[in-house]
Amino acid sequence: MTAPDAENQHDEGATGRAVVHPPIGESVAAARHTSPETVEDAPPAPRSFGRWLLSAAREVVIVVSLAMVLSLIVKTFLLQPFHIPSGSMENTLIKDDRVVVGKLTPGPIALQRGDVVVFADPDNWLGDLPVKERTPIQSLLIFLGLAPDDSDEHLIKRVIGLPGDTVACCDVQGRVSVNGVSIVEPYVKPGDTPGGGRPDFSVVVPADKVWVMGDHRSDSADSRLHDDGTGALGSVPIDKIHGRALMIVWPLSRLTWVTAPQSVFGSVPAPTPTP
Fold this sequence. Notes:
With 275 residues, the protein is of the alpha+beta class.
């Protein structure tokens, strides 16, 4: 009688069915192959340079896209830079200054006399303008509000009269008056006069409009030049105003807030309601 082969030995269970035991070598190998501890301890496969580069590029695109969207929102609703193209607001603003304009005025923040405002050309005040040549990058930066708008399609002046105000010039001392009160204007360019040598006028500012004048009165094509003597044509519609100049940001040597002394219009009364 021969001894049973150890590798092919069968056991009989309680049911009489044969149970086949795998070879000892295979059992150990399988245990090693499926051991959880071995899987957990295995070092992660190194990420290829191509996958790293793709991941980095994706992150850069996301960050840049978010920054562009945020900048566009800020430019549309809060702040926008503008370029000063002329000397009509000297010495408050000089040619080639860059200013930041707050978009909450007019709107949540009401317009006030003395505000320096940027507005779209209300009625062809600027005449025919040459086409501005820009690179696509420059156009994109201006659109996003990351560069100052250097177009010649906007004007910047100081609000002198609000809707309903009576604005006149000049009194016996050569001053501008608002609602019968003469004002002293320290922002007028030194050496210039409040009337700037232009003809006298007296107008009532129509509803939903403002009367604007440059600080360099003799070199400003403002409401006076475009009016017919009634205030109707020279006044600027409020819905044309893009915002109020807040600060000069360039050049850095001129970094300062753009304000009007409160004392200038402090004693001006409210306009008399029209019957």
